[in-house]
Inverse folding.
């Protein structure tokens, strides 16, 4: 196996024999346990200029390069390995440590990619040795796999009647005051003002839409505002809006595209904070089991208020409320709304944070064994994948392993 890779490099094999095997050094490096001399061994092994360039090369190996097809695995790896070597030789060994590409400051940026690169550099010894011992568990997980969530929700009308939007037929579901409530062919809930819109509204009535774990839903309110509701979330709202403000109440997570009306501002109450629209597209994550409530602005402006403090956000900013403290940061907005776009984006997140998100979408109950790794994982994967496919990617790091038992998932070192 080891003789395979020199042939990819045109017969030029490396004679360097580090005091510690490269595969072991990579594992130590992944956990930030390498000494300076050991890091230098890795730098010399790859023929790069410094550690910053080594990190950049590792980051360039995307996790999706690891094929799920064992028959094509080695051919793909050899191609990637050759590209990495070529990139290493293209980077000048400058004394001032100039790096061609913009570096990401955090490490590990792509934990799984680092292990994939370790596989490439040592001919597969490290991963193949582990692979055989885990084949049985992987097969067991695939047998007891869990499908992703979908469009599921319960609508509660003002009179207390509950309608399963999952099972309801398309068309008119109910009429309340001057509003018709419809389910469209694409599975959206839409509130339309009827032709009798000049009829005085007798009383303000409220509806509640709730998504279960493993569910999501898209609705259009009577004012035209669109709301995408994530799993395990609920929204309470009036069937029609009148007066000086439009107020809704959120638990969980939702993305809003608000129809702006300066005379009647749109407000979202969630987990002790108030968000006021100033012509806006924004996302609110207000799950009670998360350590903070986060409001991320994509377009326009919003005012976020909590504990008598308020801030106005600009596009690209995120307000975080934790322990009655409001802070503002610039963030990657695509990461904040990845769920709405059908993606999971985990950026340097620990396994507890990841499992909270997975548990909502797959309706699972995670259990953690002692001493589970606390490293950060960075993965981008479709929410349409089965849970075993996500676990397979996480297990590429060999930092965590999973066992599926019905809806219960054991997370192990």
């Amino acid at each position: 196996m080891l003789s395979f890779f020199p042939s990819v490099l045109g017969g030029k094999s490396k004679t360097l024999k580090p005091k510690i095997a490269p595969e072991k050094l990579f594992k130590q490096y992944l956990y930030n346990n390498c000494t300076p001399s050991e890091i230098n061994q890795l730098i010399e092994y790859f023929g790069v200029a410094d550690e910053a360039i080594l990190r950049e090369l590792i980051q360039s190996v995307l996790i999706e390069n690891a094929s799920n097809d064992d028959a094509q695995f080695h051919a793909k790896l050899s191609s990637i390995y050759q590209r990495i070597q070529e990139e290493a030789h293209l980077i000048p060994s400058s004394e001032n440590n100039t790096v061609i590409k913009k570096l990401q400051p955090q490490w590990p940026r792509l934990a799984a990619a680092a292990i994939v690169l370790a596989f490439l550099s040592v001919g597969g010894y490290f991963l193949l040795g582990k692979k055989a011992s885990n084949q049985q568990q992987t097969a067991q997980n695939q047998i007891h796999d869990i499908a992703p969530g979908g469009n599921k929700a319960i609508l509660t009308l003002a009179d207390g009647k509950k309608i399963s939007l999952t099972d309801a037929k398309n068309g008119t579901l109910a009429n309340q005051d001057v509003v018709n409530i419809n389910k469209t062919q694409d599975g959206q809930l839409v509130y339309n003002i009827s032709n009798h819109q000049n009829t005085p509204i007798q009383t303000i009535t409220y509806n509640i839409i709730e998504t279960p774990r493993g569910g999501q839903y898209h609705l259009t309110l009577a004012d035209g505002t669109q709301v995408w509701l994530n799993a395990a979330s609920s929204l309470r709202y009036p069937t029609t809006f009148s007066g000086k403000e439009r107020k809704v109440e959120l638990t969980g997570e939702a993305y809003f595209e608000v129809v702006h009306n300066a005379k009647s501002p749109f407000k979202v109450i969630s987990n002790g904070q108030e968000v006021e629209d100033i012509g806006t597209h924004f996302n609110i994550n207000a799950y009670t089991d998360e350590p903070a409530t986060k409001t991320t602005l994509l377009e326009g402006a919003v005012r976020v208020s909590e504990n008598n403090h308020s801030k106005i956000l600009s596009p690209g900013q995120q307000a975080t409320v934790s322990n009655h403290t409001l802070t503002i940061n610039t963030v990657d907005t695509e990461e904040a709304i990845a769920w709405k776009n059908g993606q999971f984006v985990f950026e340097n997140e620990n396994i507890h944070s990841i499992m909270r998100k997975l548990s909502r979408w797959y309706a699972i109950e995670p259990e953690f064994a002692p001493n589970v790794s606390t490293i950060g994982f960075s993965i981008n994967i479709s929410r349409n994948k089965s849970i075993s496919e996500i676990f397979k990617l996480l297990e590429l790091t060999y930092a965590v392993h999973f066992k599926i038992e019905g809806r219960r998932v054991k997370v192990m070192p």
About this structure: The chain has ten helices and 24 strands. The two ends are 28 Å apart (CA to CA).
